[in-house]
Amino acid sequence: MLSAREAATSLYGAYRLARFDARGMTYFETSLAGFWRSFYAAVIVAPVFAVLLAMRYAAGGEATDEVRFASVEAIAYVIAWVAFPLVMVSLARLLDREERYLGYIVAYNWASVLQNGLYLPLVMLGMAGVIPAETVGPLSLVVLSLILVYGWFIAKVALDVGAGTAVALVGLDLALSVVIDIVASSML
Asked: CB within 8 A of 75, min separation 6: which ones?
C-alpha cells in the first residue's frame, strides 16, 4: 500500500526533476515494490481525468451512450498507463539499461501526476470558457512542449542515455499515446 509519505516524497522528486535537477531521482523508491506502488499515480490523476471526461460528454460531442463512453475511456486510461512501461521492458534490455528500468518507470509515473496536473486543468478551463478558445490552443502547445522536454530529461537522467535516445523514447511515448487515443475515439 502506498503511504502518504511515499507519495509526497515521490511527487517532490518529480518536482525536482521538473526543475532539471537530476538529484530528484534520489526521492523515489526504485525497488520492485516501489515500482508497483508508482502506479498509484494513475489513481491520483483519475478523478481530474474523470471530471474532464464528464465535461466532454456533457458538451454533447459524443454520439454514444454514457456507459459505452465511460467503458471505452476507462479501458483506454488503463492501457495508456501500462503500454509504455510494457514496451520499455524490452527497450531497456535492448539499450542495456535493465538495471535502470525500475527507477525510470517510477520517475515516469510520478512525473505524470505533475504533467496531468498542469495539462488537464488547462483543457478544463478552456472547455468551461474561462480561458478563451483562441488562447487555449497556443497555451496547450506550450504546455505540451514543456511536458515533452520534461519527459526527455527524465529519460536521459533515469536511464543514463544520450540526448538522442531520450528524444526517441519521448517520441515513442507520444506515438503510443496518440494511437491509444485514436483507437479509443474510433470505438465511440
From this structure: 184
